[in-house]
Amino acid sequence: MSKKAGPLFYVCLAVFIFFVMFPFLWILLSSVKPLSELFGDHAFQWFTSHPTFESYVSVFVNYPFLRYLWNSTVVATITTVYTVFVAAFAAYAIARLEFKGKAVILGLVLAVSMFPQIATISPIYMFVKKFGLTNSYLGLIIPYTTFALPLSIWLLVTFFRKIPFDLEEAAKMDGATPMQTYFKVILPLAVPGVFTTSILVFIAAWNEFLFALTINTAEKYKTVPVGIAMFQGQYTIPWGELSAATVIVTVPLVIMVLLFQRRIVSGLTSGSVKE
Amino acid sequence: MRNGKRAEQILGYSLVAPALLLILAVAIWPVIQSFYYSLFDYRLNDPTKSSIHLNYSLDLEGYLQNYPFLKSSLTQEMAQANPDAKKALVDVEEKLKKMDQTIRSDQEVAKRYDQVDEALNNFESPSDELKMVEIDEEAARQFQNNVREVIKTLSQMKEEGNLKQADKIVGLAQGLKGVVVEPNFIGWQHYKDSLGDTRTWKALWNTASFTIISVAIELVLGLGIALLINKTFFGRGLVRAAILVPWAIPTAVSALMWKFLYDGQNGIVAKYFEDIGIVHRMGDLLTTEVGAMFAVIFADVWKTTPYMALLLLAGLQTIPSSLYEAASIDGATKWQQFTKITLPLLKSSILVALLFRTLDAFRVFDLIYVLTGGGPANSTETISILAYKMMFSQTNFGEGSALAVMVFICVALISMIYIKLLGADLLSDGAKK
């Protein structure tokens, strides 16, 4: 960790960051170009001399983009809140209580989190169709449980395990029941872990594509990824609007990542590293 | 104390139960169901195959839309027919009547018969549950034979010119043919068909090459980046955030972004690739088979290398720096340190990262669906894309499910191989340390 960073290092770093950010940069620059400059001679010019926000206006005026944003927010929020709530109890039990079959249960959770979505889609599709849940929020929240719940349990278990056991012993000594210990001792200490888990589950639900594509096909219920992907017409692709829409969904993510990068990294890497 | 243990056990199970039940209902049950579907000729666009039936059944709606009208038409004909024809017609009517009686002999069926009849009289369409009644195989065969004979007799009479409303009557009789719904259980047929189809093998090959190439590149680049940023430097947090952005944006959105950058006329990346000579012409990127596969892999590498780097970085940070100090005192070169210390100690981190990435890459869907749609000429069609197209474009749920089950089996095999390599590391109880 004490290795010194030389000038060559910063050059390498700059090149790497440039490669990672280049597509975004280009999309950002394209989103403020007038439509005529997206094609032909001007297509490869970095900067436009006539910056305009017409693509941004068009995204909201000509497409139900606000609606997509709202749908995604509703579906991802409800999915996150309910799965993290259910998972918190299960994860507490697996991480802190003694009972037979714990390892098997955790193994099952991990296995399910690796299920390919395509293997569950036909029965789930038939199910939501039968109960009239296509084109509804519930029609997505139910299938999203398939990946959100195992992910939450897996992450929360690793966070719960990091809380010192002494505290629990002390609470037990003082005569607290396991549930009291959970609510008064463990949960307050696990808040950062629960928060991290929520961020990751939210991102996963926000980005989900396959279920959203097959189940919510009506304009009114499309989520952002599907909505944007379906901007493309049969023969033409509205690149101006697409660039603007991409910028609009990316900016909040960039802010979120800047704010919570430490947490996100700890969540992504927990469970994969033996400490 | 013993009581306390028991209480803890019970509490443990009851806390886990809701989550387990949900997982069972929304993840495990559907996979089993998918497998079950794959054994049937199950097509949503074909009314006789739009649900799963193991047994023969009778569509009362179809029956009652034909039989009563056929009967009354026959009665009308009989009034005007010559004696020979009349005899034949009486025969036909007898047969049909007997058939109708057989159907109604079962009380339950008779009840539903009346309900469906009433619904039809009120111009309502009866529900599937109501109109489909199960019958045994023998009854079904007999029904079909009778209908066939009736059609034969009537067609013959039509040719002889003995029927006044020939077209209508034969048409109604024909209508009775589709009333018996045969079981659509076909066993392993879909698997046999799929495995005998070059398109499936091509899709498997595409999936495998996409997975192996992209994951291999991601591992090398990710390791390089992890080694690069595994030190203290100015602006670390910012770099980490920059790395996370490609990971965080929806795959579908990033795929569209790349589609813009790869565009054959206006795409900046396509132009640069042409300038450095990676492709001949800009247009080649998305219109040739090799170009499209390259484009898809490049976009995937861009999106997921950062994730790989983060996982490996976390692993690197657990290696104590004292090991390196000791090694350099002993005169080990940087390369020796890398191969003798870093790689062996990083093994489990690498395997875990590879496991997650391989599985993710193997089930790739969004990226390819949006970027190339599996084209050109199916050159980027992966097995998930193929299964999706089977199910939702061709509405062939049976065959699509069979392909989906194959994806599942492949994923299970890949995980097993990795878990074998990893040993019990993955699941071991971190608390016992």
Automatic annotation (TrEMBL), chain A:
Membrane protein topology class: Multi-pass membrane protein
One protein family per Pfam: BPD_transp_1
Entries under PROSITE patterns matching the protein: ABC_TM1
Alphabetized UniProt keyword annotations: Cell membrane, Membrane, Transmembrane, Transmembrane helix, Transport
Residue intervals of the ABC transmembrane type-1 domain: 69-260
GO CC, alphabetical: plasma membrane
PANTHER family from the UniProt entry: INNER MEMBRANE ABC TRANSPORTER PERMEASE PROTEIN YCJP, MALTOSE TRANSPORT SYSTEM PERMEASE-RELATED
Family, similarity comment: Belongs to the binding-protein-dependent transport system permease family.
Descriptive protein name: Carbohydrate ABC transporter permease
Organism in which the protein naturally occurs: Anoxybacteroides rupiense
